[in-house]
Every structure is written in C-alpha cells, then in structure tokens.
Amino acid sequence: MKIEPHLVYSKSEVSEILNIHPRKLNRIAQRHKIEKVDNRYIFKGSFLITLFDLDVSKSVQQVSKDVEGFTPDIEPLLAKIQELEQQLSNIDVEPLLSKIRELEQQVFELKNELKLYEIEDNERLEVFTDDDYNIFTTRLKEWQTQQKDLEQKAIEIQEIKIDAKENVEHYKNLFEYQRKQSDRILEMHEKLIVTIGEQTQSSIQRNHIEAKDKKYL
Length: 217
Fold this sequence. Notes:
- By secondary structure, the chain is mainly α.
- It contains seven helices and three strands.
- The protein has two domains: 8-72, no CATH class; 130-217.
- The chain has a three-stranded antiparallel beta sheet with strand order 1-3-2.
- The longest helix has 84 residues, at 130-213.
C-alpha cells in the first residue's frame, strides 16, 4: 500500500501504512493542527507525502523502514509516569487544603471589610493630615454644640411667641372688659345725672309752689 495525495487517512491507517507509532502521529497532528472528524485525526495524503517526503511513484515500504528509527522508546517514559503517580499518591494534601480554606476565609473577610469603604455615586473620599483632621474634628464638635444651642434658642423663641400671643390675647380681653365696665359706669353716671336733674327740678317747683302758697312771692 502507498499514500495517495487525493485521499484522506485515519491515524490507524497512517500508522499501519507508514509503520509509525500512534503517539508520534498524535504529536504530529497537534503540532500541525490537524482537524478532527468524529473526534479522530484525519490526515490528507498530500500532507503526509510532503511531511515525510514520500515518492508516490515508489512503494512506501522503504520509507516505513526509515521512519521506524524515529519511533521513541516509551517504556522509560511510562516508568517515570508511574513513579510520579506514586509520589503524588504519597503526598498528604490535607495541610494544603486546610491552608487553602484558611486563605479563602481571609479573602472572604477582607471582601466584607472592603464593602465598608465602597463609595457611592453621591459620596466622596477625602485625605487629611493629622493636624487638619484634628482641626476638622474640633470644628465639627463646635458646630454640633452650636447647632444644639440654636435649636434650644429656636424652642425658646417659639415659647416666647406663644406666651406673647397669649399675653396679647389676655390684655385684649382685659381691655375689652375695662371698656365695658367704663361704659356701664358712664351709663350709670348719666342716669344719675338725669335723675338728680329731675329731682332738682321737681324740688324747685315744689319750693316755688310753697312760696306762692305762703305768699312769699
């Protein structure tokens, strides 16, 4: 059998025709990015002829013998793999897992702590020197004290306004009472004057009549 440039070959066919180990074909396929069909490498005949410099006019038997020398001895590699697997199985991973869990817990706590420093769109972060910060805290305490004083004064002013309003109403009522009393007294005086006037006129008339009767007039 020989490789035809217009045909395609599976890995097993190439291995059988060219007498090349399948592992080496895997490496060749990966290196040259051979596409897979149904999860199997498919080699074009033209690619194989170019790669291995095949003479399509001759049998590939001689070429197969030539490439045999390139097939690696995998027994030492398999032994090394088994040795590494044995070493891995003897490693106690529990301390590593414990350390990983500890680090994960620390990361979780740090994330929660950082949430305290997240800045919203309507917030800002300022940097102060120690002196500036001390001045700022002093002014803030003074402002809080002044704010309380202003609030207290506002309450007092409101109470004064209420008292003043009540006093105005009180004096207004008192004035109205005094006015009514004065009107009553004035009315009584007027009636008294009228009464006195009437009595005086009547007395004059009686005296005049008596005087006439006694012929004083």
